[in-house]
């Protein structure tokens, strides 16, 4: 599915009119991008590179063609370089003063590094501009920096830009009079469609239809979608409304209808499931338009050798698609209906064929076509398995493949890609190329972290860092980027084994190294800098340095936002990930500040999931973070809706990968279970929390350093829910186990002190539930003392916990008939709760009601009934309003407050009886 050159003329049906080379529609919009590209071309640098990225159909190729047309008028030599001709294209332009080389589908070109090496081998006379076009950058783009010698002596500047789906609103070239209408703005969709329909109708000799336009809600229209909508309306005669989301499919259906007679004449069977469609899908997937390549496609379609006539071969060649997105849609639809065809296209693949299948599947995985089944992961898995990987000479090919296939290529492909990296590391160890070995070991280290073997990962990552350090001493500029990448990966490994101080040390080293990158290395420095800041923020959070953590995350977010402007496919997921890290603000008592970040992360990931389903897990995680923040703000109904969706997604993911999704499923179960528990739905809560606890016990047995904290969390949550059901003996056992775990964790991680204090306070309440008041006092007092120390350092984060612990301490003293001693902690708890209510009424009003009611009881116990009366009435008033909204949750609490009020009123009316 490689892009055709501008002079090639494949395609005989109406769909060929959508090809950018045909220029049926006049070039318009993209004024800012065109000005930026022309300025880049005119810069004084002898050699300059630019990556132009964007999803299929946004107009990348059309923009490059228009740039070439304008530069030719001013004396430039412009060459659209065919795949496989990268070095040869250079030899043809030697001596030209001003040269633009355009490399479409740059991410799939094995000859790219050789081309860069050739440019770096000798000074270029004049100006050479290389415009690389791809849907995204990714590893293949970043790793050109150290795999090519182009940057060895005089590094050329490298820049990136991305095309948004819709052009900017300022027209670059206005519509011509031939359209017969005036258009003020290129985002005037109805006028654009009418103008495009007029053009397509004239080309096809058909009447201009009245377009009935019905876009899907929230659809970000690409130029190709609009053009396909207009063409579909012309082909349908305007009889049916056209949705741009399905317009390409409508055009494809008309294309298929037009094949019937010509395919039959060529000896092929037309129609769905026929040999014509099957052969065309196979030829498109295998990407070989030679006679021999097309005969292979015919064979895959089940056409006998004696029927593989020249006419059949010519028919295939004439009907190969000129528009990649249309080709991908066709292949996806045909293969989704036929396992036999998938097998035929992927059996006994030679290395070159396997690489072509990988190229096609990788492009499809970035921009999923609408088909009954996603076949990209299957294709990647089969193609990777077909690559030879036994001989040392196989390593170069495997490395090229690994650089072009991210782990997120699709859930079915991930295990295969991980096995590929294992094999690459085995072969690299046997070689003598330090750079190749370092790259392979760093990749494998990250795979081992994902596979749950972080200890082995750390050993490999340290070895990789050592190799890159040695290479950097010989050529600092060239090897600084991969050293930073390996250090970042080592930090990930340290974090996975709980060595957060070590992780922070290497992350801070990366930040310092990024400050020494040359100006032209921004595309590489910025990515590693942002990654180091993001990970440092997480390490700082683990170490309890939340103020510094927030600053690091904000700095990371700023860089990733800038990178996403140049390559959204690559960096928007990182933007969402950093936004999710602001959940720490919720933990710090600032949920109102976390909410916008959490909501934006969910919005980004919803959009990503539409194109690439492998982001479903990240969406589920972001929904969980958003739900937790909404709950912290007291917005329980909204939180429930979000957390139910998150759990549903995690269960769906678990059906595909049960082992790999256990931690995330347990988190989703725990979050929703805790919400149900606090809103009075204990039965539902018990079911979810037991399931979460069962999973986390297994995880903690397997990896205690990573999962003991989460096990303690589930134990404590379930204990609280048992207590709400009156099962106090069970609740005490669970909280005692949680305290024991958290004491061990707090001995080497100050961040665990908060959770230990919470469990101690809970344990005191559980003892009191059983009437064991003397035992309750010790853990409750310990919790208060611990939280006072924490509040001194971070009052916003720990005030709520201290207020709860003080209230519990007062209640325990009251149970011990030490009412006068109970008043001081109770008054302090009420004062703190009143301040918290001013800041966040929804979240803290229920706790204020409890604190006020308890203080009223204590005051009454020491005979201060007049003072207690006002507080008792306040508690009833608060709980009456709460019960009106959530009767199941607050009805019993309201009755308790009414009972306290009645007792105090009776004591005031008859003091003697009260005594």
TrEMBL record:
InterPro entries: P-loop_NTPase, TPR-like_helical_dom_sf, TPR_rpt. TPR repeats lie at residues 757-790. Pfam families: TPR_10 (PF13374), TPR_8 (PF13181). SMART domains: TPR. Keywords: TPR repeat. PANTHER family: FUNGAL LIPASE-LIKE DOMAIN-CONTAINING PROTEIN (PTHR19959:SF119), KINESIN LIGHT CHAIN (PTHR19959). This is Tetratricopeptide repeat protein.
């Amino acid at each position: 599915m490689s892009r055709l050159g501008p002079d090639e003329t494949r395609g005989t049906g109406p769909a060929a009119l959508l090809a950018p080379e045909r220029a049926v529609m006049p070039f318009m919009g993209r004024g800012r991008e065109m000005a930026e590209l022309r300025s880049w071309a005119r810069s004084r640098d002898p050699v300059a590179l630019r990556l132009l990225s964007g999803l299929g159909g946004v107009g990348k190729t059309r923009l490059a063609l228009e740039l070439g047309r304008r530069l030719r008028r001013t004396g430039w030599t412009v060459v659209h370089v065919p795949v496989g001709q990268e070095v040869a294209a250079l030899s043809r332009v030697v001596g030209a003063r001003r040269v633009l080389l355009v490399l479409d589908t740059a991410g799939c070109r094995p000859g790219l590094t050789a081309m860069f090496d050739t440019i770096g081998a000798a000074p270029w006379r004049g100006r050479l501009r290389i415009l690389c076009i791809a849907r995204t950058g990714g590893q293949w783009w970043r790793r050109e920096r150290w795999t090519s010698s182009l940057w060895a002596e005089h590094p050329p500047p490298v820049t990136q830009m991305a095309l948004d789906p819709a052009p900017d609103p300022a027209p670059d070239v206005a519509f011509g009079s031939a359209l017969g209408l005036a258009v003020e703005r290129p985002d005037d969709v109805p006028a654009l469609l009418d103008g495009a329909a007029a053009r397509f109708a004239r080309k096809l000799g058909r009447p201009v239809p009245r377009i009935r336009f019905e876009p899907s809600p929230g659809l970000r229209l690409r130029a190709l979608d609009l053009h396909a909508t207009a063409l579909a309306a012309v082909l349908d005669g305007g009889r049916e409304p056209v949705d741009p989301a399905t317009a390409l499919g409508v055009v494809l259906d008309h294309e298929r209808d037009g094949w019937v007679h010509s395919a039959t004449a060529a000896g092929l069977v037309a129609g769905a499931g026929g040999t014509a469609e099957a052969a065309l899908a196979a030829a498109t997937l295998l990407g070989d338009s030679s006679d021999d390549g097309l005969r292979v496609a015919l064979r895959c379609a089940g056409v006998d050798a004696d029927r593989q006539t020249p006419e059949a071969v010519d028919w295939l060649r004439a009907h190969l698609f000129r528009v990649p997105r249309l080709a991908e849609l066709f292949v996806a639809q045909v293969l989704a209906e036929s396992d036999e065809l998938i097998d035929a296209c992927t059996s006994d693949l030679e290395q070159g064929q396997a690489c072509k299948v990988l190229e096609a599947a990788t492009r499809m995985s970035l921009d999923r076509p609408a088909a009954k089944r996603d076949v990209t992961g299957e294709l990647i898995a089969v193609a990777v398995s077909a690559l030879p990987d036994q001989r040392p000479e196989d390593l170069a090919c495997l490395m090229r493949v690994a650089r072009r296939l991210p782990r997120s290529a699709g859930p079915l492909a991930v295990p295969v890609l991980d096995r590929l990296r294992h094999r690459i590391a085995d072969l690299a160890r046997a070689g003598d190329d330090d750079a190749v070995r370092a790259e392979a070991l760093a990749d494998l280290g990250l795979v081992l972290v994902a596979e749950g073997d972080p200890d082995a990962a750390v050993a490999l990552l340290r070895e990789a860092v050592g190799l890159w350090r040695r290479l950097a001493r010989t050529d600092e500029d060239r090897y600084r980027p991969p050293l930073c990448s390996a250090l970042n990966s080592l930090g990930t490994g340290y974090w996975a084994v709980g060595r957060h101080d070590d992780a922070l040390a290497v992350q801070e080293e990366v930040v310092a190294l990024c400050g020494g990158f040359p100006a032209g290395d921004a595309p590489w420095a910025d990515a590693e800098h942002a990654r180091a800041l993001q990970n440092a923020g997480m390490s700082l959070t683990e170490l309890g340095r939340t103020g510094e953590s927030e600053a690091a995350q904000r700095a990371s977010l700023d860089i990733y936002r800038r990178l996403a402007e140049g390559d959204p496919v690559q960096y928007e997921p990182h933007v969402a990930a950093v936004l999710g890290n602001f959940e720490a603000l919720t933990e710090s008592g600032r949920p109102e500040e976390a909410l916008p970040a959490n909501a934006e992360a969910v919005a980004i990931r919803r959009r990503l999931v539409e194109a690439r389903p492998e982001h479903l897990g990240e969406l589920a995680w972001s929904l969980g973070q958003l739900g937790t923040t909404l709950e912290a703000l007291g917005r329980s109904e909204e939180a429930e809706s979000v957390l139910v969706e998150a759990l549903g997604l995690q269960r769906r993911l678990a059906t595909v990968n049960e082992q790999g999704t256990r931690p995330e499923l347990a988190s989703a179960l725990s979050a929703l279970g805790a919400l149900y528990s606090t809103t009075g739905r204990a039965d539902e809560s018990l079911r979810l929390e037991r399931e979460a606890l069962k999973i986390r016990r297994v995880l903690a047995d397997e990896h205690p350093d990573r999962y003991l904290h989460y096990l303690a969390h589930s134990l404590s949550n379930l204990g609280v829910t048992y207590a709400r059901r009156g099962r106090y003996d069970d609740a005490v056992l669970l909280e005692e186990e949680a305290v024991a775990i958290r004491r061990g964790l707090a001995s080497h991680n100050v961040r665990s002190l908060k959770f230990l204090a919470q469990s101690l306070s809970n344990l005191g309440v559980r003892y009191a539930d059983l009437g064991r008041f003397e035992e309750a006092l010790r853990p409750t007092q310990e919790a208060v003392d611990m939280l006072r120390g924490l509040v001194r350092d971070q009052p916003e984060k720990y005030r709520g916990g201290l207020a709860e612990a003080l209230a519990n301490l007062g209640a325990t003293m009251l149970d011990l008939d030490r009412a006068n001693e109970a008043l001081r902690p109770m008054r302090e708890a009420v004062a703190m709760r009143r301040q918290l209510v001013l800041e966040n009424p929804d979240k803290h009003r229920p706790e204020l009601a409890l604190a006020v009611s308890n203080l009223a009881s204590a005051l009454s116990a020491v005979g201060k009934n007049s003072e207690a009366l006002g507080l008792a009435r306040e508690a009833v008033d608060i709980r009456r309003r709460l019960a009106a909204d959530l009767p199941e949750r607050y009805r019993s609490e309201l009755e308790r407050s009414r009972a306290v009020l009645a007792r105090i009123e009776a004591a005031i009316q008859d003091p003697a009886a009260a005594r």
